[in-house]
Amino acid sequence: MSRGAELARWLAKVTKVAEEEVMHLRPMQRALSMVSRTIPVKVGNEMRAAVLRLQGIEVGEGTLVYGTPELSSAEATHARMAIGRECIIDIGCLFELGESIVIGDHVTIGNNVMMITTTHELGPKEHRAGAATRSPVRVEDGAWIGPRSVILPGVTIGAGAIVDAGTVVNKNVAPSTRVSGTPARLVEQLDP
pLDDT tens, 146-166? Predict the structure, then answer.
């Protein structure tokens, strides 16, 4: 192979890698997120919701966002997330958007809640984190997710359910129930 052909092949590889890396920068979404972070915490809650809308997230009327959430996604879109009407999203939340996250109406999400949609298959002993798998997360109307809870891939939190603070939810939560612990366990059945 000639030196010119080698150089052309090398440049093609470098160009491909650079394009893949730059694609994930999402400059408009980053700029909007930076604007949102300049708004003091617990102030400008409706402005933060408007900034999320500009980023491509569906946000219902009357929803308040107390702090700029961390939005994580390998793709260049936040269209996988939808937040209903009159919700409250507290400070320090993280939404990993490998798959969709749908939050119903009148949902309250406490501070530092994490919603994760990507995990891994079990790999061989040499590398246990195998191929990535993705499953959506859904929070139905009226649910309340307590501070520092973690909602794992494929989970649905039923309408009117309560997830106590610090709970790790790895299975669906029935409507009008309260769960707590790691992993989440039924604490009580609530009035519908």
Answer: 999 999 999 999 999 999 999
